[in-house]
Each structure stands twice: as C-alpha cells, then as structure tokens.
Amino acid sequence: MAHKRDIIIIGGGPGGLTAGLYAARMGLRTTIIESGICGGQMINAWVLENYPSYESIMGADLATKMKEQTLKAGAEIKELTAVEKLRLSEELKVAITADGEEYHAPAMVLAMGAHHARLGVPGEDRLDGRGVSFCATCDGPLFRGRTVLVVGGGNTAAMEALFLANIVERVYLVHRRDKLRAEHTYAERLKKHEKIEILWDTIMTEVLGEKVVAEVKLRNKRTGKEWTQPVHGVFIAVGVRPNSDIASSAGVKTDEKGHIIIDQKQRTNIPALYAVGDVRSDSPRQIVTACGDAVVAVTHWLSVKPD
C-alpha cells in the first residue's frame, strides 16, 4: 500500500524529530519512520549538560519531550518500523518498509544517525552482552561495586566513566593518546575523580573470559609494556559509524567513511533529498547541530518546492 505524504523523514533522533516538527508546523503532511524508538543515541545519554535551556537533563527525558512536541505539531511517527529500501528520483522519493508498506513523497530527509563503532579485537564480539557493553546507562547497574574499564577519549567515553564511577568500585579509562579529546570540563572531572584511573597511551588488545568478561589485555604504545588487567566489564566508546547503507545502495553519494555528502543546505546529490545529523559528512555529532541541520533542510525545501 502506498501512503502519499509531502515529506518523509527516515530516522527519529533529534535531527529527524526536529525536521518533523518544522515540516508539520508548516502544514506539510509529514511522516517520520524510525526503526527503533525515537531519540536515537540521545536516549542512552545519562545526562546532557550542553543543550540550550537545560542546565542538566537526562537524554531519555529530552527525547520524550521532542517526540511529544513533534506529535502535537501534527507529524505522524512510525516507530519500530525499519526501512529496507529506498527508491529515489528527482520527482519522487519512496521508502519501503520491512512489512511491504510504501511511503511516497516529493521530498525526503535522511536522519538515520549512526551506530557504535567496534574495536575489532578478539573477544569483543564473543563477550558482547556478557560483560562487553556500548552503553553505561543501560548496563552500568549490572556492575555495582565491581571494577570496569572504559575505552575511549572523547565526550562519550568521559561521560560513561563518570556515570559508572557513581555505581562501581573502580573505573579504568583506557586512551590511546596522552591527551583526552573530551571537553575540558569533563576531562577535569575525570582527572580529579578518586574512583577513576586514566591509562594513557594505552590500547586494549583482547577481552578475556570463558562465559563472561574476566580480564583484558592491554599494551602501552609508548613503552611497549603489555599486561593483563582483571575487570568485570568493558565499555567501548570509540566513536560511531553512519547508518547510510540503504542510502548509498539507492545512489546517494557518501565519503570514504560512509557519511552522506551534503552541501550548505543539507542537500545530497539527489534533488529534494537532504541528510542531517550524524549520518551526514563533517557532523560535529551534537544534538544541537542535528537540530540545526534539520531546520536548514526543511526551510530550504519549503523555499523551493513547487506550489
């Protein structure tokens, strides 16, 4: 069955929800299609302290507020609905879902976000869900009073370590460089926290354990020293990869890392097809920039669309 809309948005993270909000408020028949539940990576954020108007808010709470506002504006949201294929032409954009439904519109916004990157070390996949995790807020309580290790050096890794330090006995933060990429505020908190120890210039080379994580192998890149560190949990926070496969398969141009290439108006190489948020090239991977991307995309389409 074909559902005709004025605009289709693929993805219900902050970029997708903002695109839906603006499109619906402008009177466009708007459908947001989300493979999971709305919020994207935002729902896994323990606390957000850099979103304007909120000094501090839980990521899941902000996602709920965004969704409610977008629904109130009149957008349709289809959660737990995976898009399996796109057909893209200059005149018509078609999203085909796993259950065979088709959504047709003259314009589309790609806001599929990204997924957690993996290290590719032995034991990572085998022990995924058995001590290896990519979400501290999801799995942190399972390690109450125990020792865990976080891999990474950016904001996400810093937030994961700080969150875990409220629950566990000890946190090792493994970073391959001698300086964190995290914001200064987070970096200072990490260095001062009595439960957190930063292992500089260090990489994790293997996760060990029979049925669950028991220890990890580490190596200092500067000295060459190798050792085994007993831990109960490993939290990997080394970046994300764009969810762009269905777009590239439909002819959308991407860069060497799979990010969708856009211009200053968020336009892709296909007319009336836009990309916003973490899935697009050169994204700062921030909620506020994903929202800004969405505003640029929708307002541009409104300025050029046929009457």
Q: What best-fitting shape do the alpha-carbon axes yield?
A: elongated
Order of helices and strands: EEHEHEEEEEEEHEHEHEEEEEEHEH
Query: What would CATH call the architecture of the largest domain?
Result: 3-Layer(bba) Sandwich
Q: State the distance separating the first and last CA atoms.
A: 26 Å
What's the arrangement of secondary structure elements?
Elements lengths: L1 E3 L2 E4 L3 H12 L4 E4 L25 H15 L2 E3 L4 E6 L4 E5 L4 E4 L2 E3 L3 E3 L15 E2 L2 H4 L7 E5 L3 H11 L4 E5 L9 H9 L3 E4 L2 E7 L6 E6 L5 E5 L2 E4 L3 E3 L2 H5 L23 E3 L11 H18 L3
Parallel strand pairs: 1-7, 2-3, 2-8, 3-4, 8-19, 10-17, 11-12, 11-17, 12-13
Antiparallel strand pairs: 5-6, 6-7, 9-18, 14-15, 15-16
Q: Would you give an account of this structure?
A:
With 307 residues, the protein is α/β, with parallel strands linked by helices. It is built from seven helices and 19 strands. Strands 4-3-2-8-19 form a five-stranded parallel sheet, with helices on one face. The radius of gyration is 21 Å and the shape is elongated. The chain starts with a strand and ends with a helix.
Summary tags:
elongated, single chain, FAD/NAD(P)-binding domain, 19 strands, 307 residues
Give a quick rundown of the structure:
By secondary structure, this protein is an alpha/beta fold.
